[in-house]
Amino acid sequence: MSGHKKTPNAKPIINITIDDELLKHVEDYQFENRIKNRSEAIRQLLLKGMEVLDKEKQKQGE
User: Fold this and answer.
1) Most CB atoms within 10 A, among 2, 24, 34, 36?
2) Within 10 Å of residue 29's Cβ, how many Cβ atoms?
3) Contacts (Cβ under 8 Å, ≥6 apart) of 44
4) What integer pLDDT is reported at residue 5 of this predicted model?
C-alpha cells in the first residue's frame, strides 16, 4: 500500500504512460460502452483482465 495520506472517500491516483495505439483501444472501449471518462474505462478494463487471470489460475489448479 502506498504511503500517501488520503481522505476517507478518496481513491488513489496513479499515472501511466501508454502508446497511441493502446489509448485508441481504450477510447474505443469507452465510446462503445458509453463510459463517461477514460479513467473509468481503464478501471473496467483492468477488472475484466483480472477476472480472466483469476479464471486462468483456477483452470491451472484443477
Assistant:
1) 24
2) 16
3) 29, 33, 35
4) 64
